Amino acid sequence: MNHNQLFTMRNVTFSFNQQSPPFFENVSLEFKPNSLNFIYGKNGMGKSTLLKILSGRTQYPENVTGSICINQNIFDLNTLNTLADNVGFVCQQFDDMLISSYSFTHNLQCAQIPRIPLPIPMGPHKPYPQFLEKYGIAADIPVALLSGGQRQILSILMVLQRSPSIILLDEPTASMDEENANLIMSFLQELCSKQNITVVLIVHTMTLVHKYATHGIFQILKNIEGKRIITHHIINNYDVEDTVKIIL
């Protein structure tokens, strides 16, 4: 994978249809390569909507303009493009991606099926990261027997079978206990540092931010007109210091 993948959002405006006012307006963001980039906000602030835009998954009648840049590739959000093919996405309902009676290995093989022109036989999955054993995952048992954190790791690895350099995750630690939440976050940290992956993830608790953020956090707020604004904060001695307002 390429090192230091530039991932930016430029002058993006989004509304839910042609008649509704802008939900996001003229937003520009830059995410730190090969790092965990946290997005935080209260319920209903638009965190999942932001990930939808970043992953190229908006649909009619939603209206979006602006662009997403991945290194030298610029994707115009107002036209059909291949952005979704270049960005990996894991939703909150990650278990829907898995076949619970299949093993870890077989699920990874299934993740390759859309890329294989039938009737060519399915090849072996891509090698697991060398650090996988660290997380106590048995590759040959039904995934229903794995913990929630281990199954989440599997869902991420399934997305990585398509070799994206950017991974977006919608609250990957939701409904997880502390042990499994830390398991997932530790895994994501190693993906960033050892596999050169840029991760953008939604979090619902500042506890994880304080523990794992190394450079800052994006927070979504709402102004009196209902328009969403995005601010960037520096994590400093476990306090959040507001330093840069990205849009007004």
Describe the 3D structure:
The model is unreliable at about 235-248 (pLDDT under 50). Helices cover about 25% and strands about 30% of the residues. With about 250 residues, it is α/β, with parallel strands linked by helices. It is globular. The protein has a seven-stranded mixed sheet with strand order 6-7-8-3-9-10-11, with helices on both faces. A four-stranded antiparallel sheet has the order 2-1-4-5, with no helix packed on it. The protein has one domain (about 5-245): 3-Layer(aba) Sandwich (Rossmann fold), CATH 3.40.50.300. Strand 4 and strand 5 (about 75) form a beta hairpin. It starts with 6 loop residues before the first strand and ends with a strand. The chain has helices at about 45-55, 85, 105-110, 150-160, 180-195, 205-210, and strands at about 5-15, 25-30, 35-40, 65-70, 75, 85-90, 165-170, 200-205, 215-220, 230-235, 240-245.
Itemize the secondary structure elements and their pairings.
Layout: E1 7-15, E2 24-31, E3 36-40, H1 47-54, E4 63-70, E5 73-76, H2 83-86, E6 87-90, H3 104-110, H4 148-160, E7 166-169, H5 178-195, E8 198-203, H6 206-212, E9 217-222, E10 228-236, E11 239-245
Parallel strand pairs: 3-8, 3-9, 6-7, 7-8
Antiparallel strand pairs: 1-2, 1-4, 4-5, 9-10, 10-11
Helical stretch tally:
6
Rg, Cα atoms, Å: 18 Å
- The CATH homologous superfamily is named P-loop containing nucleotide triphosphate hydrolases
Question: What is the top-level CATH class?
Answer: Alpha Beta
Unreliable stretches covering 5 or more consecutive residues = 237-248
Net shape: globular
How many distinct folded domains? Answer: 1
Structural class of the helix and strand makeup?
A: alpha/beta
Order of helices and strands: EEEHEEHEHHEHEHEEE
Distance between the termini: 36 Å
The strand count comes to: 11
DSSP helix fraction: 10-25%
What average pLDDT do the residues reach? 85
In the CATH scheme, what's the topology name? Rossmann fold
